[in-house]
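pasting Xaa-Pro aminopeptidase for the record, 480 residues
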Amino acid sequence: MSTHHTTGRPPYAGTRAPRLADSPAFNAHMERGWGAPDVVVPVIPGAPEAAADHRRRLSERIGARDAVVSAGRAPLRNGDAMFGFRADSDFVWLTGTQAEDGVLVLRASDGGHDATLYLPPPARPGESEFFANAAYGELWVGPSPDLAAWAEAYGIAVEPRAALDAVLDTLDGALASPSVDDDLVRRFGLKPSEDLARALSDLRMIKDDWEIGQLREAIDHTVTGFDAVAREVPRAVGGLGERWLQGTFDRHARTFGNGPGYSTIVGSGPHAPTLHWVRCDGPVLPDVPLLLDMGVEANSLYTADVTRTIPPSGTFSPIQRQVHDLVEKSHRAGMAQIRPGVEYLDFHYASMEVIAQGLHDWGLLDVSVDEALSPGGQQHRRWLVCGIGHHLGLDVHDCAHSDYPTYQAAPLVPGVVMTVEPGLYFHAHDETVPPELRGIGVRLEDDLLVTADGAEVLSDALPIDAAGIERWTSERIGDA
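structre below
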């Protein structure tokens, strides 16, 4: 007969083991015999220098006011499981780091602002959290650098997160970015500041050389991701469906970057007109257009945003090509307006004019083109309800806190990076269009950098004309 329970059951038998800390013998056993792990601070080359310049620019913008910006925490997914962590973009722009629960304090001084980064220190052998804290214990999350290593790598003062409260208590109504925890705002009288959020968005509009390099990297990996997806189209058509292609791109993005910059869109046939078709739970049909809206987020968190609509069979039907040709014409008209000195919305109006004229020529508008384009008209937008593009950077829809005059009414300047993405979306249940158009969705999207004398299409490695897309697709599905 077994007698191993006669001394009583242990106080806690689960692997998380918060009560193991109550066992002196266990603690003593866990404290000894650990070597020093080989830990390298995660640094994207050039990020510390770029972040220091970003802090300088913000300091000039906000003047003699203290500011607090937080990295944030991973949100709860369900039960005690968390979503993957992705640091707040403003925090990344100002620090170059992606440390969860990090807080940056910018304290006004005679020379501008003194910057201090507050980070949770790693929980190492000798501390009960080493084995009991699933968020920071190194038995759970792996070894991580100490705070001195962070400070040396990023050229910024770094203090333990536990010291933050005492510092915030000495500030008088510091400005808080939207990422700062509500509890900190409430306890220390911080001021949630639209001015600070707006200032950060405005500054992030004009990318420096380092940021442009990161965007080029993200876009280059996105182009090869399109290639990888196209080669899997035969298997998707063969039964694996949209989700196989979504997973193909997401795996590519995780391999060559931080991951996808947004939820990957793969829409076949009747799903293609749905603007954000991220469920990707349908089949890939062989004879209808396949819309692919995908972007790799680089390890620095700068993201691409590119769309192509391809024929899984390798050839568009005449009506599909007719739709694609009109979208291409609109796309080229919009891209032609991307240059210094042109108002931001001019590309939108140029693309929309082409779409409205084309729909009128097809007999789909029961008003004139001028009436459709008027503020009180907009009938053509039944089939294009979204905008034609947006700023691009750390967020796929970057600089969203800027006000209207700055974001949409100001002239373009060198260093701005944006997308142009017209489309036509004829839903399968839209009875206002002929049956042959129903279920066709086409979008073209490219990422453009405003230069000193025009614009550079950063994603031009992918064709945009129907014949070029047919050749590109046929070469890849033929090699599969």
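The two ends are 63 Å apart (CA to CA).
The CA atoms of residues 7 and 13 lie 15 Å apart.
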